[in-house]
Amino acid sequence: MTNLEENRIIASNLSYTYPEAERKAVDDVSMRVKKGEFLAILGHNGSGKSTLAKLFNALYVPGEGTVWVCGLNTRDDDLVFDIREHAGMVFQNPDNQIVATIVEGDVAFGLENKGVPPEEMRVRIDDALRAVNMSAYAKKAPNMLSGGQKQRVAIAGVLAMKPDVIILDESTAMLDPSGRREVMNTVHRLNEEEGISIVIITHYMSEAATADYVIVMDEGKIAMSGTPREVFTRVEKVRALGLDVPEMTDLANMLRKDGVMVRADVLTVDEMVEEVCRLSSSI
User: Fold this and answer.
1) Which among 173, 221, 175 has a CA at the least distance from the CA of 51?
2) CA distance linking residue 141 with residue 139, whole number of Å
3) Beta-carbon neighbour count of residue 280 at 10 Å?
4) pTM of the model
5) 114-155, pLDDT tens digit by residue?
6) For residue 20, what pLDDT is reported?
7) What is residue 107's three-state secondary structure?
8) Residues 164-183: pLDDT tens digits?
9) Where does 132-176 have alpha helices with state H?
10) For 154, phi and psi rounded to 5 degrees?
11) CA–CA distance from 14 to each of 22, 30, 55, 74, 243 (Å)?
12) Which of these, 187, 170, 178, 110, lies nearest to 145 by C-alpha position?
């Protein structure tokens, strides 16, 4: 494979059909996840976004096409464990991911299966818990943690395997706003400070707005792609695909329809404040 230094995941003409299904869940998708990229994948229920995530992690094998993860072909059964070391996955329900009675035991689970020596395991566990700000909870029982804390432990378990990519499959969907904020702050920090590529499958537009690049799935195909500004400023098309846009983008769109010339590509509250201040100073 070429461009392995630049791309962590390469999907080429990728298709997948569930048994008994009438149409493809993923239909001829070609895309890349770059080194150090923060990618958000959006889509209404049944659009194929979670299926795509599972194809990236070798949980599903392509019906057609190919997925390369750090140069490894997911069709090769002998490489599955290696692939999941390179591309770790965090799922929706944190309770379904807890396998041990104390936090550090949960983080150690994958390392034990891999046969990592105890001395190295200790270092990796401590480093992973420190990276997600959960060191103080190492000896705690997972069932005493909040949802956001449990997801941070799940991320630590993936992080201990030293992945190149972390895939989060609607990992904030069952969390309250505080828990979602905890998880998003954690993955952004890992992306920025550790250079780990992040793929987040989400239905929260505010999360997608913080990504480097956005892909919108519809009926198994890529319907839109681009930076958050490029995607979300096409408000009507996004809504036609059964999605919404970030609140501030929606507000900017309404103001522009009423003749208030704010920027169309506003994504955040801070950017809207800047626009309001700019307009106020020109009056």
Assistant:
1) 221
2) 7
3) 8
4) 0.89
5) 889 999 999 999 999 999 999 999 999 998 999 999 999 999
6) 86
7) helix
8) 999 999 988 888 898 889 98
9) 147-159
10) -60, -40
11) 17, 6, 9, 12, 24
12) 178
Binned at pLDDT 50, 70 and 90, residue 1 comes out as very low
Determine the 3-state secondary structure of 52 from DSSP: helix
β-pairing, 221-226 with 38-42? unpaired
- Backbone torsion region of residue 157, taken as left when φ is above 0, otherwise alpha when ψ lies between -120 and 50, otherwise beta: alpha
The position carrying tokens 């891999």 is: 114
Query: Do 160 and 124 contact (CB within 8 A), yes or no?
Result: yes
CA dist 167 and 138 (Å) reads 23
Give the tokens for residue 71: 């140069």
State the Cα–Cα distance between residues 259 and 257, nearest whole angstrom.
5
3-state secondary structure of 180: helix
Mean pLDDT, the chain, whole residue set: 92
Could you tell me if 148 and 129 are in contact, meaning their C-beta atoms sit under 8 angstroms apart?
no
Does 37 have pLDDT greater than 70?
A: yes
Confidence of residue 4 (pLDDT cuts 50, 70, 90): low
Q: What is the CA radius of gyration of the chain?
A: 20
Within the chain, strands assigned E span 7-16, 26-34, 38-42, 64-69, 72-73, 87-90, 165-169, 197-201, 213-218, 221-226
- Do 33 and 51 contact (CB within 8 A), yes or no? no
Please give the structure tokens belonging to residue 58: 């070798």
